Amino acid sequence: MKQDHDDHHAHDPGFGHDLRFMLGRRRFLALTGGLGALMVAGGPAAALDCVALPWETAGPYPADGSNAKAGQVVNALTQDGVIRQDLRTSFGGLTPVADGLQLDLEVTLVDADGCTPLAGHAIYVWHCDPVGQYSLYDVVEANYLRGVGVADADGRLGFTTIFPGCYDGRWPHVHFEVFESIEKAVSGDASLLTAQMALPEAECAALYAADGRYANGVANLGRISIASDNVFGDNSAEEIAQQTLALSGDPSSGYVGTITIAIDRNAERSAAGPGMPPMGEGPGPMPGTEGAPKPPPGS
């Protein structure tokens, strides 16, 4: 579960205020309809499965303005360049690039009531690198593997990123927050849904065994199951099926992952959930949660 944080986002008012001028029609189209090369052909959203996803914790590494590191609020959402399609690079003046096997995410946002497309809605996604490290927290000089996209008329959008690693204590996953618009995403408004995508076990096991960049993935995956995971473990089979990426590809050429995110606007939102530190505090170790100490790279 995740706390609503309207009053806790620290942001630069100028970015949100000037967003419509910075983005412009051409860039908006490039980030939505222009992603056609990434999107697979398919039927209308109404033909898709629409099991509403449950609210989950954002974990201690959201960089959405809801917590701090070393006394400084961490907020990637107010940085110029966060609205993008390729998440492998850093942005806003930072330069590191994430290593790892390419993963193309194809996302469809729908309202669970009627399975109708959520055109113009925005999604912020973030996840760890191959050895379980998060930018801005573990890798402070980078902000890669984070970004915001906006859905086209069919509720579709896409990102190019890397396949997440598996760190000790958590099932492989991708975090996300969905907002009514780009403006709400960058201005500190509460999300419509905060949840996580799960990665399927077979593809994770195959990649971690084949690719040395995911050095600790085999051992960590062997110590966890999706049923014992402290985020996914209490979800129904239908919810887990809905929030698990459908993958095509292989450990050599990379993967394409598709998912439909169905949002229940009336879903109960808990004040806080496991793995989410108190507002204004850093992501200190929280044994048994997503904040638990992670093994160093290569372990």
TrEMBL record:
<dbReference type="GO" id="GO:0008199">
    <property type="term" value="F:ferric iron binding"/>
</dbReference>
<dbReference type="InterPro" id="IPR015889">
    <property type="entry name" value="Intradiol_dOase_core"/>
</dbReference>
<keyword id="KW-1133">Transmembrane helix</keyword>
<dbReference type="InterPro" id="IPR006311">
    <property type="entry name" value="TAT_signal"/>
</dbReference>
<protein>
    <recommendedName>
        <fullName>Intradiol ring-cleavage dioxygenases domain-containing protein</fullName>
    </recommendedName>
</protein>
<dbReference type="Pfam" id="PF00775">
    <property type="entry name" value="Dioxygenase_C"/>
</dbReference>
<keyword id="KW-0472">Membrane</keyword>
<feature type="domain" description="Intradiol ring-cleavage dioxygenases">
    <location>
        <begin position="100"/>
        <end position="170"/>
    </location>
</feature>
<keyword id="KW-0812">Transmembrane</keyword>
<feature type="region of interest" description="Disordered">
    <location>
        <begin position="267"/>
        <end position="299"/>
    </location>
</feature>
<feature type="transmembrane region" description="Helical">
    <location>
        <begin position="28"/>
        <end position="48"/>
    </location>
</feature>
<dbReference type="GO" id="GO:0016702">
    <property type="term" value="F:oxidoreductase activity, acting on single donors with incorporation of molecular oxygen, incorporation of two atoms of oxygen"/>
</dbReference>
<dbReference type="InterPro" id="IPR000627">
    <property type="entry name" value="Intradiol_dOase_C"/>
</dbReference>
